[in-house]
Amino acid sequence: MSFIYSKLTSFLNRISDEFHKSFLFTLIFTVLGFIEDQWVRSFFIGLYPSENFLGFLKKNNILRNHLFNPLIVLVVFALFLALSLTPISESLTQTLIIAFVFFFIGSTILPRFFINDTENIVLFNKRDIYSIGFCLILISVAFFFISIASVGGIPLLKPSIRYLLKPAFTMPVFLIIPGTGILASTYLKDFQEGIISRSQARFRFLLLLIINVGILLALGYRTPLLAALLLLIIIAYFGNIISVWEVVIAALVGVAAIIGIGYYRSIKEYTISSAIDPFYTLKSRADFTLHVLNLLDIIGGNFGLTHGKLLASAIPGSELGPRMMVGKLIAWRTEVTVTPTLIGQMVADFGKVGVAVGMCILGFILGIGFKIVRKTKDYFYIGLYALLLTYAILGVETGILDIQVLFYFAVAIFIYLIAILKPLFNQ
Q1: pTM score of the predicted model
Q2: Does some domain include residue 400?
Q3: CA distance 225 to 215
């Protein structure tokens, strides 16, 4: 495996070096370097609120040290449930209790027995990691232009053509999210080593966010845009690049963006009128998704119905994608995609038993990641944990069903298992 990693990173390093040497990228980085320098020296930075702005937030121990604990997934899930316009069934209530209890066990109790020292944690070369992130963003940008060319316009300006976008072209665009996380983590490393200042790190994080907004917003996607924002916030939070009050403000901005984009799209597509409360789109979406979960809970029972077929449908080449398969399960409609929540796939595949096992495993992955971050403060593990937590939080509604997201979790499991099992092989 180390041989494959060495060959892959060597190849990506060469690609990254060649692009950085090219005239176009030399010009781009020169311009960005000039703008960054002006940003750092700008008079207006002095007018920006200080670190101690809204100081009462900083004094709160939970906000200061545990805001992005894995248990935030349960908090978000509870808030999502509260948005529903109709009450949930007794059976689903039991399923949710099982989910919450076993996630708590996996994220908070089980990690105490593993990785109690940092000797066996694999450390990665910053240059290799940077090249991986840089190449992922290059691929994303290339497929962004292919996507808009394939539909003959920008979906944000003409929402109807969004449904003409081809998954084969848009899926690579979403590589900008892990690419952003990887690049941001390397900038965090530079900040930790004193190579760049905190102001420079903040500028680079802001620049990455602007690039994500430009690409993902143009395609009319809300969830990936929120993923990019949340990912950068989590990395910056653990790296002390942003303050607690900025995290709170950014979270409010993210929620407002979800509501605003959804409201705009709904009006443009004539699904609601401008007289409707903007919050209605959020409430009705939560209500519909929980109704879907209730139906899946009924058909899943205690031991499930599809027995892994729903999860396996995420593999490219499957006749139906996982969210289309959910549509078929609950309404026999395969032409629509339906979000099943974080536990929808678990209960449909393996019932309440599957929810217990699945949520415990998910909690354990996040719990181990959080423990490593707290112990090492290592830039790579901060970026990796931020990526996993981002998709776990967003998965509260959408589920963790996309093949690329499952791949991120698979990579994390492999890396964490090395740290867990290495002591056994060293005995």
Answers
A1: 0.91
A2: yes
A3: 9
